[in-house]
Amino acid sequence: MADLARSFLVLGLLIATVPSLGHALLSRKPKTSVEIQNVLEGRDDLTIHCKSKDDDLGVQYLKPRENFSFRFRPNIFGTTLFFCSFAWKGGVCRWFDIYEHDRDEHCTKCTWQIFKEGPCRFTVDDYDYGGEHGVVDELCYDWNPDRC
Ligand SMILES: *[C@@H]1O[C@H](CO)[C@@H](O)[C@H](O)[C@H]1NC(C)=O
Questions:
Q1: Whose CA is nearest to atom 12 of ligand 1?
Q2: Are 22 and 65 members of one domain?
Q3: Any ligand 1 atom below 6 A from CB of 37
Q4: Which of 117, 121, 119 is closest to 139 using CA atoms?
Q5: Residue 130, in any domain of the structure
Q6: Is the pLDDT of residue 84 over 90?
Q7: What percent of the chain stands above pLDDT 90?
Q8: Ligand 1 site, residue 100, Cβ cutoff 6 A
């Protein structure tokens, strides 16, 4: 009888764990894109260098209004992090975590504008109002406290 009970327990555990395990392994998250636009006051050029723990996206030079964008698939552990340095005229250099899972998991197209005071993220409403996609939200952040 104890064996039978144990069998039921094992079977129950399998049913409870395997579907979610399979789900986690098979359902890969969709790709997320991050776009960064140079809107520095004074029309300064912007030098960006973005990295994650595993990827170095290289040094990018942006003229006024130019963009740099990249795509990635957030990991299933909820720990995806991309951080960038932003440098401009006069030796100014600032850090910012441009993609941080807990803050950004709901944006699949994250659009940032870089001001000297800090970056602002625009959330674009993906709902299609007959061809018009409105910017619904703009959130501005402080630079990371540590200097580069
Ligand atoms: C940069 O991206 C923004 C937002 O997607 C777009 O409006 C703008 O035209 C782009 N600028 C350039 C120079 O491609």
A1: 66
A2: no
A3: yes
A4: 121
A5: yes
A6: yes
A7: 61
A8: no
Provide CB contacts within 8 A for 70, sequence distance 6+: 33, 34, 50, 57, 82
DSSP-assigned beta bridge partners for residue 37: 67, 113
- Secondary structure of residue 40 in the 3-state scheme: coil
Extract the tokens encoding 63.
């003229």
Nearest alpha carbon to residue 47 among 89, 96, 87, 82: 87
Domain that holds residue 18: 1-29
pLDDT tens figures, 22-73? 455 555 667 999 999 999 999 999 999 999 999 999 999 999 999 999 999 9
Q: How far is the CA of 25 from the centre of ligand 1 (A)?
A: 36
10 Å Cβ neighbour count for 103?
Answer: 13
Between 101 and 30, the more confident residue is: 101
Say whether both 18 and 63 belong to one domain: no
pTM reported for the whole predicted model: 0.76
Indicate whether residue 122 lines ligand 1 (CB < 6 A): no
56 falls within a domain: yes
User: Above 90 in pLDDT, residue 128?
Assistant: no
